[in-house]
From TrEMBL:
<dbReference type="GO" id="GO:0004869">
    <property type="term" value="F:cysteine-type endopeptidase inhibitor activity"/>
</dbReference>
<dbReference type="Pfam" id="PF00031">
    <property type="entry name" value="Cystatin"/>
</dbReference>
<keyword id="KW-0391">Immunity</keyword>
<keyword id="KW-0646">Protease inhibitor</keyword>
<dbReference type="GO" id="GO:0002376">
    <property type="term" value="P:immune system process"/>
</dbReference>
<feature type="domain" description="Cystatin">
    <location>
        <begin position="2"/>
        <end position="95"/>
    </location>
</feature>
<keyword id="KW-0963">Cytoplasm</keyword>
<protein>
    <recommendedName>
        <fullName>Cystatin-B</fullName>
    </recommendedName>
</protein>
<dbReference type="InterPro" id="IPR001713">
    <property type="entry name" value="Prot_inh_stefin"/>
</dbReference>
<dbReference type="GO" id="GO:0005829">
    <property type="term" value="C:cytosol"/>
</dbReference>
<comment type="similarity">
    <text>Belongs to the cystatin family.</text>
</comment>
<dbReference type="GO" id="GO:0071220">
    <property type="term" value="P:cellular response to bacterial lipoprotein"/>
</dbReference>
<keyword id="KW-0789">Thiol protease inhibitor</keyword>
<dbReference type="InterPro" id="IPR046350">
    <property type="entry name" value="Cystatin_sf"/>
</dbReference>
<dbReference type="InterPro" id="IPR000010">
    <property type="entry name" value="Cystatin_dom"/>
</dbReference>
Length: 95
């Protein structure tokens, strides 16, 4: 459930969040200086602004996860804002 002006609670990833991950994968690899064979959206939180902010937990292989903060412009273009290392059981917390 969304809080006014805030992020939704954690939700299971959807086809839409996977498409966002596919779009920003190169940006994430550039920021982290790593190459990811796997890049699968697991969970996400969303905030509606002039566009949308997403924080997406992404499985990147082995025991590794990332939290990727993405801004989706009103025209649909996605931009990575930040990337953090994450663990499987970590809760998605806005950053």
């Amino acid at each position: 459930m969304a809080h006014i002006g805030g992020f939704t609670d954690g939700l299971d990833a959807t086809e839409e969040t996977q498409k966002i991950c596919d779009e920003v994968k190169d940006q994430v690899q550039e920021r982290t200086k790593k190459t990811y064979e796997e890049f699968r959206a697991i969970q996400y939180r969303k905030q509606i602004v002039a566009g949308a902010n997403y924080i997406i937990k992404v499985y990147v292989g082995g025991f590794s996860y990332l939290c990727v903060k993405v801004y989706q412009h009103l025209d649909g273009v996605c931009e990575v804002i930040d990337v953090q290392d994450h663990k499987k059981d970590d809760t998605i917390i806005p950053f």
